[in-house]
Amino acid sequence: MAIRKTQTKAEKKQAYDRKLCKFLDEYSRVLIAEVDNVGSTQLAAVRRGIRGDSEMLMGKNTLIRRCIKVHAEATGNDKIKAIIPLLQGNVGLIFTKADLKEVREEVAKYKVGAPARVGLVAPIDVVVPPGNTGLDPSQTSFFQVLNIPTKINKGTVEIIAPVDLIRKGDKVGSSEAALLAKLGIRPFSYGLVITNVYDDGSVFSPEVLDLTDEDLIEKFASGVSMVASLSLAVSYPTMAAAPHMFLNGYKNVLAVAVETDYSFPHADQIKEYLKDPSKFAVAAPAAAALSGGAAAAPEEEKEESDGESDGEGMGFSLFDD
Q1: What is d(CA 30, CA 94) in angstroms, rounded to the nearest whole number?
Q2: CB count, 10 Å around CB of 148?
């Protein structure tokens, strides 16, 4: 049986470098994922879940930085250097050709519940709900140490009210960890957390992936409105401010025409209204009559036809001898 040769440390680094360089050449998009408190079994499950269009690579940050820097200088692709500042803490790289949002959602599925270990910083608030604990009355003193109100119900300890046991950002103490273990509560869940996204030289927050078309239209409209306001304030013409500038210019020309002998067709109508304000009162009913006359005509015709039919039905006319 052939004996498999063990790779030296240098050979392992060279193999890792080739693998990373291959991924950098093949993929233009990378998700940087934080892997704190994530076990090897969980990482293997994530790899299986994204297999096909994506590859995940773990390693030491110093080694990855060096490989990226050397590869960028060798290929002239300086865009990949944008990944280097993102390698902070315990992180991994997910290279992908698939939709970034779909990959992030797939990665988020692989979360595993975990107990509260002593010294661990709580990622969320931990609240112990009220109810029967199933513990015997001899455990009452343990709850008293943590100032948890209890009562004995049917031979077991029952918690009376919800208890804020651990605050987010606080370290888990030995008493809190022991209590949660006794109650069988696994308050935390851990998985890969996407912290940054690299897309062909651009780096942005993963929250950008949640933006919808409606959000983009709203932000664009808000930006256009701000550009228009600024342009009008400093009297600098832009496409966004052009309609407002034309309208304001027309108002100014109209104001000049009203105050002077200069005139043009639209200004003549305004001048006539200003000379004889009663025309305003005449114009409004005339417009109403035009719109209402068409509706009234069918009604009159209907009444006339109804009258004729009524007369014929009675068998005589009002003008009969």
Answers
A1: 5
A2: 19
Q: What is the DSSP letter of 319?
A: T
CB 163 within 8 A of CB 148: yes
Give the per-residue SS3 of 146-212: CCCCEEEECCEEEECCCEEEECCCCECCHHHHHHHHHHCCCCEEECCEEEEEEECCEEECHHHHHCC
Tokens standing for 88? 């902070």
Please list, in sequence order, all residues whose beta carbon lies within 8 angstroms of the beta carbon of residue 152, skipping any fewer than 6 positions away. Answer: 137, 140, 158
Question: Could you read off the pLDDT of 30-63 as tens digits, one per residue?
Answer: 999 999 888 888 899 999 999 888 999 999 999 9
Helix (H, G, I), strand (E, B) or coil at 276: coil
User: Both tokens of residue 91?
Assistant: 């992180």
Contact at 8 Å (CB) between 111 and 190? yes
Single-letter amino acid code for the residue at 137: P
E-strand ranges in 4-149 read 29-34, 54-57, 91-96, 112-114, 126-128, 131-132
Query: Mind giving me the DSSP string for 47-78?
Result: HHHHBTTEEEE---HHHHHHHHHHHHHHH--G
Query: CA-CA distance, 70 to 195, in Å (whole number)?
Result: 24
How does pLDDT run across 154-209, given as a tens digit for each residue? 888 888 888 888 888 889 888 888 888 888 888 888 889 999 999 999 999 998 88
Measured between alpha carbons, how far is 61 from 37 in angstroms, rounded to an integer?
Answer: 17
* Model confidence pTM above 0.85: no
